[in-house]
Amino acid sequence: MTIDDYFATGPERERPIFDAVMAHLDTVGPVHVEPVSVGIFLKRAQTFAQLRPMQKWVALSFSLRHRVQHERITRRAIPHGGRYYQVVNLRDADDLDDEIRGWLTEAYLDAPE
Predict the structure, then answer these.
(1) What pLDDT digit, counting tens, does each position of 40-79 carry?
(2) Cα(18)–Cα(41) distance, rounded to whole angstroms?
(3) What's this model's pTM, rounded to 2 decimal places?
(4) Cβ–Cβ < 8 Å for 94, 85
(5) 72-110 as b/e: b if 16+ CB within 10 A
(6) Which residues, 6+ apart, have CB-to-CB distance to 12 below 8 Å?
(7) Per residue in 72-82, pLDDT tens?
């Protein structure tokens, strides 16, 4: 599935959020984008973040070596293999603030190449 195929059927709010995430990650380094039926996986050698459409927002999940304690984290961090998978909900592209961009950068830089 191509990225255009993926966005052809989803809610309109998804594309601007994806574009904002990718605009930030383009400043960090190369990212492999894998659109699948449940969302978009963002990868280096392995997935470091995911965008999944929900009813009223897009859930952005990312993996870090530590648990983030912040009001923007909407689900309990799930430990797995020495990492914590955390989720923030983005209702629109403006929700992608400096703090979330920082977490994405950290997840990217900490992912295997």
Answers:
(1) 999 999 999 999 999 999 999 999 999 998 888 888 787 8
(2) 11
(3) 0.93
(4) no
(5) bbeeebeeeeebbbbbbebeebebbeeebbebbbbbbee
(6) none
(7) 888 878 788 88
